[in-house]
Amino acid sequence: MGVGWAWAVAAALSAAPGGVQVVSPLVKVRPDATPKGAKEARLSAARGECEGTQLVLPQGVTRVTMKPLALKGPGAPLTVDAWREAYLDVKTPSNGEGKTGPWPDALVPLSAPANPRHPTVVYVEVCVPAKQAPGTYAGSLSAAVDGKELPAVPFRVEVQPFELPATSSLPNSFGISLYSIAKGHGIPAESPEAKALLREYGKALLEHRVSAHGMGMDPPPVKFQDGRAVLDWTAYDAEMGPFLDGSVLPSGARFTTADVRDNRKASTDAEKSAYYRAFQKHFEDKGWKAQLFFYAKDEPKPADFPLVKAQSKRVRDAGGDIPVLVTTSLNPALMGSVDILTPIINCFYPREGPQTCHNVANASTARTKLSSRAKVWWYQSCMAHGCTGGPPPDRALDKAYSDWASYMVDHPAPLNRAMGPLAFESGVDGELYFDTVFAYNTKKDVWADLFEFGGNGDGTLFYPGTPAKLGGTQHQPVVSLRLKHIRDGLEDYEYLRLLTSLGDGAFAKAAAKRLAKSGYEITRDPAEWEAVRKEVTERIVKRKSAEQAKRSGRRTSGGTP
Q1: CATH of the domain at 107
Q2: 0.70 exceeded by the pTM?
Q3: Do residues 541 and 162 lie in contact, with contact meaning Cβ atoms separated by under 8 Å?
Q4: Is 101 helix (H, G, I), strand (E, B) or coil?
Q5: Within a domain: residue 559?
Q6: Does residue 128 sit within a domain?
Q7: Where is this region: Disordered (predicted)?
Q8: What is the Cα–Cα distance from 542 to 516, expressed in whole angstroms?
Q9: pLDDT tens digits, 101-158
Q10: How far apart are CA 86 and CA 109, in angstroms?
């Protein structure tokens, strides 16, 4: 469920000068802050879950090294991975609650060059295999800065006796593009290197419980014969197959969704419908479980409504079951054409002051206006932080754009993480996000400037890990601290969903409310996130134990030895 127990040791103690402090991942360590942490790392994780914490090292460091660590316990040793947190120098705040100056975000290899002017923070993570034996795993983490050994940090992980699914239970779809990646890394998009790099980006998203739309972008080639669309699936299957059949990761995780890639060679309405029909049949023949969807005109204006209706009709004339996704709030003019209604998060929560959505309705209300097969998703946009950047002069307007769940670099970590608990509490059916590498398309240095759409990091959750930046010879995706928080929020969702399935839904709802009462009323205190996580974990374990005892009793009474 995301927060390691590193924050909740018996007492929060400041490490000795020159030592190491263990700090909650829900604290963004900045140069003007002096966080107090613990002397040991204590994490709790379900099987199939990844848990992280932060080690704050002495400042003024140019090189960090760490000895490999395998935690020993009742099962196979657990490995520990580590990255150094690189800082983004924010020049324009995302809004009134953002600030200028360095903010931690990119997670780079420990071997990458460091900036001694920034805090030295290492993000440490343990990923627990699905079949790991439960119990306590322990070891000592040893690090050195500029060749000087630091005091070892005791490291303990409590593996819980329950498992999270490898594939997210909450459907989602975040945008990514081969062509953006190639541009960000300065390599040809048609090169084998770019295609291999796309696979690495896709794997990184899937490792964080996120599915992608876009990917290679190119549609399967098509020919039309006697009213039928004949597609060449060779390139598409090579690219997407591993993400849809569960073979790209050892866990078997799969994309929850996939978008229909429209093809310009399908020029008439009949050809388009035949093309969509062939797309769905291919998914059925392959046995891919991902929800195939058609992404219609994004954020359509009234002048675009005829286009959306025409798109929807062509998809439905295919005679299959491909839902049409439209990013819009409730609008009577479009309701007959929408199968996945996807408003911005602002449209789910009424709020006093200037209105950032003029048609507010929660998920339950929205469903009453839709067909029985329709779903309600949501997404973040610049409307959650203001689209112009910087604090607006009007305080009421700044307040209207503040406190929302947010994926911005210069916003508190709990806001980055809140979408998972909010999804559970609100009952939405899925989440959309428009892009994860948007800034790669710009001519600026992504490592120095992520300001887009009035926010720092809007549409960009990765950094291009080029050899020139990181050293070595290989290009690689560099994930952000924000992507870790998004994953932790999706794991929150799994915990709450599991507790509900065990018959304790009322407590799960109350727990979600404690973390995020609404889209703009989100608990900032890491200790409260930790307390909720601990209580939910204990109740799951108790319910699971009672369930197993009941099954055992039935077997015994039935005469089974």
Answers
A1: 2.60.40.10
A2: yes
A3: yes
A4: strand
A5: no
A6: yes
A7: 541-561
A8: 25
A9: 999 999 999 999 889 999 999 999 999 999 999 999 999 999 999 999 999 999 999 9
A10: 10
